[in-house]
Amino acid sequence: MPDPMIDDLLPRLLATPHEPAFVSARRTRVTRGALAARALAVAADLHRRGLGDGDTVALAVRPGPAALAVVLACLRLRVRVALVDPAVPPDLLTARLRAADALLVVADPWVRAAAGWGAPVARRAGLRIAPLDAIAPVAVLPRRLPDGTSPDRSGGAAEALVIFTSGTTGDPRAVVHTTASLSAGLASVTELADVTAGRPVVGSTFFAMAPALLAGAPVATRARRRTIEALAPQLTYVTPPQARDLLADGTRLTGRVFAGSAPVSARLLERLTDAGAQQAWGVYAMTEAFPVAAVDSRAKAAYVREGGPGDLVGDLVPGMTARADADGQVVVAGAGTAARYLGGPPLDEVATGDRGTVSGRRVVLHGRLKDMVLRGAENIYPGLHEPSLQVPGVAQALLVGVPGHDLDERLVLVVEPEPGVTEADVRRLLRAPVAALGRARPDEVVVAPIPTSGRSRKPDRAATVRMLT
């Protein structure tokens, strides 16, 4: 078996030490050599602490050079990294750390403080963090670490990354990726992104930073107007809420823009190209498989113009396969899919939770199975109809079920306008699209900001329902 692609990153950083790795609007923040040196120093520190092949380190550090250095260090030692969000409820954080069997927590200074001596202040600010020291030793790595040596165990397959997705305190749910599955994902993103050396890339996720650095491109982690207009990046990775923020701020875009982590409408991709992007792509991905499929603005717009049902998320990336099971759920498989769920058996394929169709290599989604609304005797899948409501003037549109009489549900359309668009304008613009919904026509249309949740700020359907009740 060839060495995983992910192991190429550290040697490539060392090969061009004076070139920039991380940049801001005005300067080079970290060179490639400094990033590599930091990763080697962290590896030596972890080795001195007795961590080695098969052990787990929990990482509670904001995305950027410091976090990436820890990941590279752990890859070198073949120490598994568990990504944890310290802002989740304390009981859930405790359960996640114990489920991952973390021997060490590497944390930002503010996380350590909020979990320890600064807990009273943090609680007054509405932030409660579990006492991490009671679960595992906590390390806040200083900016300067002493030089040292560590064994290089890179090469070959091993479990590399644990990512928690959902679950409860009694049964935390996490995805386990290996060096092989991460490398396959990197290869897919590298082919899709087609990044060249020298010109910046904007993005803060691992699958934005690593392909760029492999190609010799510097990374800026903050997707904001000042950064983008100063750097003129060749590629910008954003979530849909970040994209809308940039557009509302009047940002002039350059190069290509990839939007993902939440549904991406044809209208949003059109707005990104109107703002200067040479190309705008929607990327369909999930924690268990990144990426799955991709679609550019032209193909998505054509699908909408032709009246295609559901949400076209594009063609499968090379190496990925998909099918619809007996319940209409899209199931995916490929080298880039996770190896297993934490505590579970190996996975041959992954159920996406999305209802949809697969025709050849084209995937069309018809909504989340769990989002189904039961009105009367009719099963309504919001994701099948929401794309047709994303007309000019509409930033977001959600169809949600609100509890009604006798266990029935009312179907409510919640619409968030684009900046400068009035409620009267929105209702006029949606008159024909709403009428065309037929049996899925909503009982009520509400014009209001749509609640979001999580770091990617996905539309929060449960919070939207609570807002309406």
Automatic annotation (TrEMBL):
InterPro entries: AMP-bd_C_sf, AMP-binding_CS, AMP-dep_synth/lig_dom, ANL_N_sf. Gene3D superfamilies: 3.30.300.30, N-terminal domain of ligase-like (3.40.50.12780). Residues 16-341 form the AMP-dependent synthetase/ligase domain. Pfam families: AMP-binding (PF00501). Keywords: Ligase. Residues 450-469 are annotated as: Disordered. Belongs to the ATP-dependent AMP-binding enzyme family. This is AMP-binding protein. It comes from Nocardioides plantarum.
